[in-house]
Amino acid sequence: MNIAVITGASAGLGLEYAKAVYETRADLDEIWVIARREDRLQELQTQLGSTVIPVAFDITDPQAVENYVNLLKEKNATVKLLINNAGFGKLNNFEDISTQENARMVRLNCEALTVMTSVTLPFMNEHSEIINSCSIASFAPNTRMAVYSSTKAYVMSLSRALRLELKPRKINVLAVCPGPMDTEFLGIANIEKGVSHTFDTMPRVNPRIMAVKSLAVSRKGRAVYTNLLFYKFFRLVAKILPHSLVMKMCGT
Ligand SMILES: NC(=O)c1ccc[n+]([C@@H]2O[C@H](COP(=O)([O-])OP(=O)(O)OC[C@H]3O[C@@H](n4cnc5c(N)ncnc54)[C@H](OP(=O)(O)O)[C@@H]3O)[C@@H](O)[C@H]2O)c1
Questions:
Q1: Where are the alpha helices (H) located in 75-189, listed in sequence order?
Q2: Domain 2-250 CATH assignment equals 3.30.565.10
Q3: Residue 66: CB within 6 Å of ligand 1?
Q4: What pTM did the predictor assign?
Q5: Which residues pair with 131 in a beta bridge?
Q6: 3 SS3 class
Q7: pLDDT 10s digits, 144-180
Q8: Residues annotated catalytic, as ranges
Q9: Which residue puts its alpha carbon closest to atom 42 of ligand 1?
């Protein structure tokens, strides 16, 4: 049985990934949607159909991950597409974010993504794909998002290294780098209007378009994808200029 696995599918970009995979990947038998809010996943199944399978769990919980692996074995699943999308951020000075929140960000954005990749890879074969939700925050360090941007730099580095390692197995790894999207993410990150001049003025990315386009470029074997000319230009600038300068220019 060929399946897709999508983490963080109960909202925002992950929800759009689930819809776009459903619409474009008729070759897949099932789409496993993962998040903690089971009711949201069930709603998605009601909306799209029985090939969408709610698999509700906290991806930072080792026992729950073990249950997920057992389910993959039990169903004799081949994972043709893994979308590591669950993640969150916090906007504030490092010292004003609690130790627990900073640790939770690292645990979800880095550790859980690594664990999910590690346990799922044995169930993947030739022409399978991994898509990792990264961010424009990975292009250079960000003040007031020090931990978040560091977690996304980790995702970028891991994705690029893994892509080369997995070339002989013909598995592609894509790092997707959205700019700000109007999802639950912004509220959770405390990025309400008026809190940050930088965020207030940054162009918004449409999560639906981001999902559809990144699925298409993943199939073409690309390594990194960001959309909107503004963010493509920012990526170039962050590659050319010293990061000390980029950080001063950006501010948050
Ligand atoms: N929105 C932006 O501005 C933006 C910009 C750049 C990059 N990104 C990145 O894009 C990705 C998706 O963001 P989004 O905007 O779609 O955020 P979102 O709307 O807040 O959705 C986050 C998803 O992750 C799930 N999730 C959170 N903790 C989880 C856990 N422990 N176990 C399982 N699932 C968990 C949430 O579901 P439950 O609460 O039901 O578990 C939800 O489905 C993230 O990696 C984010 O860092 C977002």
A1: 99-106, 113-120, 146-166, 184-188
A2: no
A3: no
A4: 0.98
A5: 83, 174
A6: strand
A7: 999 999 999 999 999 999 999 999 999 999 999 999 9
A8: 148
A9: 8
